[in-house]
Amino acid sequence: MKSERKYVVPCGKCRTKVYCIQCIKQWYPKMSELDVAEICPFCRRNCNCSVCLHTSGFIETSKINMTDCEKVEHLSYLMVSLLPFLRQICEEQTQEIEFEASIQRVHSSKVGVSETLCGNDERVYCNHCATSIIDLHRSCPKCSYELCLTCCKEIREGRLSGRAEMKFQYVNRGYGYMHGGDPLPESCLHQTPDDHVEPSVMWSADDNGTISCPPTEMGGCGDCVLELTRILPDRWISDLEKEARDLVLILDNKLTNLRQNRAETGTDMLCKAASREGSDDNLLYCPDSTKIQEDEELFRFQKHWIKGEPVIVRNVLDKVTGLSWEPMVMWRALCENVDSEVSSMMSEVKAIDCLASCEVEISTRQFFKGYTQGRTYDNFWPEMLKLKDWPPSDKFEDLMPRHCDEFISALPFQEYSDPRAGILNLAVKLPSGVLKPDLGPKTYIAYGVAEELGRGDSVTKLHCDMSDAVNILTHTEEVLLTEEQHSAVERLKKEHRAQDLKENLVRDGMDESIEEPNSDNNKEDTDVSEINDSELLPSGIRGEFKMSRDEMQGTAFTCPHSEGTMVESGGALWDIFRRQDVPKLEAYLRKHFKEFRHVYCSPVEQVIHPIHDQCFYLSSEHKKKLKEEFGVEPWTFEQKLGEAVFIPAGCPHQVRNLKVRNSS
């Protein structure tokens, strides 16, 4: 039998590598045969063969070269910036020691604090709020219940928030209910909302500040008084604060003189993202990575970052090798030339079904097929799936070393973002052997659609991260909706609205916006669709690394581009709220929580913490109401392919996927 002849393209540079036509089409669709003949993918350092995909150290990830003087400047800046936080920690500990002195009826200098045993590979959490504990806290000598100083203060002030682990268990009323139909008869027999209410147990402090271990209903034993304990050596925090304060007195003036002549942020690097009246922070800093002059731009970045403002850096993928983030390339990296256990583990994934807000098992191949071709339910409603933290972040560097290196090398402002050598990255400063927080990188792969569906949107709900983060959109894909799907979406939206009215989730006056989705009355909802072709069902991949118009509501801004260039529609719509607006944002959500749906499209029945519960996504309509009632407006913008978004810790944010996307 005559074998089929294969045509190959030799590399004109190295003259050793050859690529067959079929592989070029399958694995390098953006390269022509002439491109390969001139310089092959291996020479370009973006080879997608399984060997190269599993090779680490292929590229240099850190791009930082600095003199000793520059290192001193950076470390001085770090110390000056951190001192206020160190002082706050010290003040909280001093206050708690004063309470303990009052309880023991001795002078604060005579208070003895016992040390708890905690290994380097352990992390202590507050049993009530689940926050990490770094040093002083209260602990039960009988059951080891541990309470952070913030919760101690809240108990004494009579304003303790709900427990972190108290989650409402939603009932699955059936697929028909999720699309506006009646619930399954048997679902009505399940638990009622009253069954999920946290037990009404009073937990208060004595008049002298003593706090007892909570009762068993709240996770404690209820038998003992909580004792003050420490993790670090005695007075370690206060001594460190004093040393830092003395150094800052010397460094602060020198640092100010050194920086006062640095350039101001140019208007061509600012983009409007909000229209808050009387505010000077409506513009966000969004430099182009290809035009960044490191010294000056780092200073500009710090000016905005220190104020808690997000930063968008454009074209970060233009400065790396161009390794493909196509789904099949990632599939190849995970499944070829790996052991059978890993291959079996990666053959299926647990994705989030955005309509039901719960996990579903699906084969990895089927998930990626839906990524490129789209998926629908039986009634033609778009099926939105997403993968969060896949592969698991603790395996990412091992399973996909080449992609991990590519992502880290793409990170802008590596003084902050480099997880291995960033001089201003606090996680890098932690001693070796100490358990560090999970900082990624992580990969998020999600389907998406430009039109706001109202139910089943591909979103990351409102939440707040424990650390700063940077998110890069590495890949997007566009999938066309059929006319049949468009008709089904419009019909089902009306059924959803009728159900909302029946269950008192909306006011009667809000019905018109769904009946006429393109009317002037729904302008905030249609502006984004005008920017992004409403007939596209897109998807994308984004990755994340955590670090230590005049009427803008519901409208995304566009960063400046060179004249004559085509502006690509965004892959994700971001809403990031200012830290100072958090109390008002929480008040709005507590007031309107019954207007939202969560798991199985059930109405939200209980709120422990409006942001940390992660059960809210503010639609265009809700963002409009938030501004009208509380005067709060987020920074709203579209993230485009190759853009890095820096999100400050403490800023609540939400994301809606406008395209099928992949990000890290």
From TrEMBL:
UniProt cross-references to SMART domains, sorted A to Z: JmjC
Major place of residence: nucleus
Residue ranges of domain JmjC in the record: 419-664
GO cellular component: chromatin; histone deacetylase complex
Compartments, record wording: Nucleus
Any GO BP: regulation of transcription by RNA polymerase II
CDD domains: cupin_RmlC-like (cd02208)
GO molecular function: chromatin DNA binding; histone H3K9 demethylase activity; metal ion binding; transcription coregulator activity
Keyword check for Nucleus: yes
Entry keyword set: Metal-binding, Nucleus
Renumbered residue ranges of the record's region Disordered: 506-528
Keyword Metal-binding carried by entry: yes
PANTHER family registered for this protein in UniProt: JMJC DOMAIN-CONTAINING HISTONE DEMETHYLATION PROTEIN, LYSINE-SPECIFIC DEMETHYLASE JMJ26
Family listed: Belongs to the JARID1 histone demethylase family.
Protein name as annotated: JmjC domain-containing protein
